[in-house]
Amino acid sequence: MPSGSLILAPPQSKNVITRVALIADGQQSRVVPGTFTLGAELAVAAEGTAEDVTATITGAQASIVQVGQVLAFESPAGRYYRATVRTKYEATGTSLALSATETIPTGSVAKFPAEFRIRQSADLAKSTSTTTFSSFDHDVSDQSINETTATLTFNGGFNWYDPGYATCEYAQTQSQKIYVERELPSPDGNVFNSGPIEWGIAVISGDATPAPNGGNVSANVTFAISGSVSKIEPA
Length: 235
Fold this sequence. Notes:
By secondary structure, the chain is mostly beta strands. Helix content is 5%, strand content 41%. It has one helix and 14 strands. The protein has one helix at residues 163-173, and strands spanning 17-22, 34-37, 51-56, 70-74, 80-85, 95-100, 109-112, 114-115, 119-133, 143-156, 178-183, 197-208, 220-226, 230-232. Strands 1, 8, 9, 10, 11, 12, 13 and 14 form an eight-stranded antiparallel sheet that branches. A six-stranded antiparallel sheet has the order 2-7-4-5-6-3, with helices on one face. The longest helix is centred in the last third of the chain and has 11 residues, at 163-173. It starts with 16 loop residues before the first strand and ends with a strand.
């Protein structure tokens, strides 16, 4: 059996993965991950024009996918296609109602939750503030109350095919809460398939797309998490 590495060194942030998903009102649990594979070509009548289509997928998933969620299907040739969920997927069927602008080849795969693309940073900051509260029921005049909050900031480049950023745009315009997670690299590829994952339920508190003269267009998103951040250990 492979042994764990004894070399103590920080992981390379280049390999960090960031993901988001729309959630139902009141949801506090982690989103169930899954993949959607097209069992047949998903054709549109006119390329470049949004069209309501129904995708045939090769098997039912345990995931529940909300209306407005943007997915990026990667074809066997490595090309990406964007599609938006138009009917809630209830984790029981082998079809997925989408709105698409391009014909998507058979065998194309979409990951859920949606991954951000071309990110340059994925910063997580946690904080706990202490406030005081007094009432007739307390023995002392002031009772301390700790309130935990966290901020996630994902900065990077803009791309229309980026399903993570597109999903965030939809969530902000709809004033909808969103599930967000950050996965660090595996501490030892011989032992663990995934690295530590930190996740939470958030609102989008910032969305900026700077477009400087002579430079790249950026897409920077900030998430505000009220409450503690949950952590999943490497597995």
